[in-house]
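Please decode residue identities from the backbone states below.
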């Protein structure tokens, strides 16, 4: 069990870091954030601060790690690179996730490695995550996306695959949390979400995972689709995820 009851997913953007820096301590203590390291886009590639960098990926990850450390040093944080290709490497030949984990640990952040269920078939990704060092009192978090939710329709196959991942990491379920990530939920009803979560929980709950959390984004792909009438005003619901 955990004392945290809110697991927000941040895109590791400057505005989010400013908000976190101003968060009340009472709220901060009950929050376990997951920082999603965004892919390197054109804005980063053409940024003046990276103009003379001969290792753009390393420089970008260093900057992101520094920003995370400014708001989470001395505390825990989940970190993932869901949008990146599972085989993504830095200029030094190191996988991007172990690289940023190492940088964060050196800055005092207690990193909780996020294991991508959907990425485990990638040999490069699997070997990289197997090489991540986690202290004896630390733990992992398995991220179960749409692939996992679909696989849960075949309980025996789903359980076998989850146990295989844990076995590859040489850990018991007690040292792993589970994040059920629904992704875009704008087209799903509450009944759909409940049914899908139930299928996953029926398989995983008896295994004894450290805790379970759910995530889903209720915002549409573009802001114009969130407001039915142009030039009108509406309250747009934000996404959040709860630790159970």
């Amino acid at each position: 069990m955990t004392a945290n009851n809110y697991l927000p997913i941040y895109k590791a953007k400057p505005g989010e870091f400013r908000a976190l820096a101003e968060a009340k301590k009472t709220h901060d203590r009950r929050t376990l954030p997951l920082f999603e390291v965004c892919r390197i886009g054109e804005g980063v590639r053409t940024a003046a601060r990276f103009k003379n960098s001969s290792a753009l990926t390393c420089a970008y990850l260093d900057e992101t790690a520094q920003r995370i450390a400014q708001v989470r040093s001395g505390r825990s944080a989940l970190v993932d690179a869901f949008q990146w290709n599972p085989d993504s490497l830095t200029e030094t030949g190191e996988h991007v996730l172990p690289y940023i984990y190492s940088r964060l640990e050196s800055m005092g952040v207690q990193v909780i490695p996020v294991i991508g269920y959907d990425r485990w078939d990638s040999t490069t990704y699997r070997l990289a995550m197997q090489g991540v060092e986690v202290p004896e009192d630390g733990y992992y978090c398995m991220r179960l996306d749409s692939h996992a939710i679909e696989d849960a329709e075949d309980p025996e196959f789903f359980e076998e695959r989850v146990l295989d991942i844990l076995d590859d990491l040489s850990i018991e379920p007690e040292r792993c949390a589970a994040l059920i990530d629904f992704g875009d939920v704008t087209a799903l009803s509450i009944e759909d979400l409940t049914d899908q979560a139930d299928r996953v929980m029926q398989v995983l709950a008896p295994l004894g995972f450290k805790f379970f959390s759910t995530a889903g984004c209720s915002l549409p792909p573009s802001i114009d689709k969130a407001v039915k009438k142009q030039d009108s005003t509406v309250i747009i619901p934000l996404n959040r995820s709860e630790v159970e």
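Observation: Residues 37 and 137 are 25 Å apart (CA to CA).
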